[in-house]
Amino acid sequence: MKTEFDCNNSIIDAYSPKEMACKAETIGVTKANLGFLSSFMLAVLAGAFIAFAACFFTTCITGIPTKLLGPARLVGAIPFSLGLILVVVAGAELFTGNTLIVIATITGKVRWTRLLWNWAVIYVGNFVGSLLIVVLVYYAWQWKMGDMAVGITAYNIAAKKISIPFLPAFYSGILCNTLVCLAVWLCYSARSTTDKILSIILPITAFVVLGFEHSIANMYFIPIGMMLSQTKEFMAATSGLLVADPSIFTVYAFLVNNLVPVTLGNIVGGSVFVGVTYWIIYLRGDGKGPVTNGLINIEKETEIDYATGAALFVKKEIYEKVGLFDEKYYHYYEDVDLII
User: Does residue 340 lie in a domain region?
Assistant: First the structure.
């Protein structure tokens, strides 16, 4: 198909910010309408991917003197980018990135109840995936590397995170997910896997180096510290090397003192600081009314593979029915990356 867009833009150039906003809206609709099992399984994968990245980070910074704070965090931050790279390229559903679905909600394409349902399913799935890797890492004795040096690093990271007061944790969560969602937003400009990887690295590196709080990453960082605090062999061998008493590790402290404020901050950072901001700039006034029941209710008129979220074929008239059709950006809806 030859469109106005095709004539004015090179197929190798990045999508423009306006086009990225339209793509974000479309992806939000698709994410919100994935079935429960697909959403949950993709969320478990995302939790595992971020946990792998957190374990990678912990190991990379082990052995670097604490006085070299900036260089140490930079050394760990680049490997930590692996987490979002796996989410975007391999395909998974990450709660912090899904805060951008608010764009499709504001434009009327997804109902608020559907948005909250998606967030709940993805959040729980991320938690399950993270805890799965925590258990596997613990029983694999990965923390014993370097005469338990990796375990000491993991414990001290967890202790520092669980000791952050509520408001600083909240504000740190805002700043963190602003950068994470900007990384996702930059991926909407990409035309290749290389573009996506390069788009991710610097924003993720920035939030890690700056020490901001990511709720899903903390689902690995703090539980692994909690498990080590209950390990007699570890505690006996590392006396005097730990920054806090093991008594600080309680389920209440983890959930209420850290996860709640960080999660709330992540929601504000992603949905308001990024999602609402770009909606105001590029999409305000473009809404065409809500979709029935918050779903793309097109039954057999289109082929949608809900197992992967991939749109296999959608006719122009179907997009018009659900209020997604735009002649200028129609090519998006023919082969848009729906899992990002």
Answer: no
For 118, the token pair is 């998606």
Print the domain residue range for 103. 4-335
Residue pair 166/261 in contact by the 8 Å Cβ criterion: yes
Q: Hey, which residues does 304 pair with through a beta bridge?
A: 311
Helix (H) or strand (E) holding 214: none
Strand segments, DSSP code E, in 226-317 are 303-305, 310-313
Q: What is the CATH number of the domain that holds 247?
A: 1.20.1080.10
Under 8 Å between Cβ of 219 and 126? yes
Number of domains in the chain: 1
Locate all alpha helices (DSSP H) within the chain, ordered by sequence.
4-8, 17-32, 36-61, 69-80, 82-85, 95-98, 102-106, 112-139, 145-162, 166-187, 193-209, 215-229, 232-237, 251-252, 260-267, 277-278, 316-322, 332-335
pLDDT in tens, 239-271: 889 999 999 999 999 999 999 999 999 999 999
- 216 and 126 Cβ atoms separated by less than 8 Å: yes
Q: Cβ of 78: how many Cβ atoms within 10 Å?
A: 17
Which residue type does 318 have?
Answer: I
Give dist(CA 283, CA 106) in Å, integer: 9
- Answer for the pair 15, 189: CB distance below 8 angstroms, yes or no: yes
| Nearest-angstrom CA–CA distance, 256 and 250 | 10
Distance (Å, whole) CA 226 – CA 161: 12
pLDDT digits (tens, 9 = 90+) for 116-142: 999 999 999 999 999 999 999 999 999
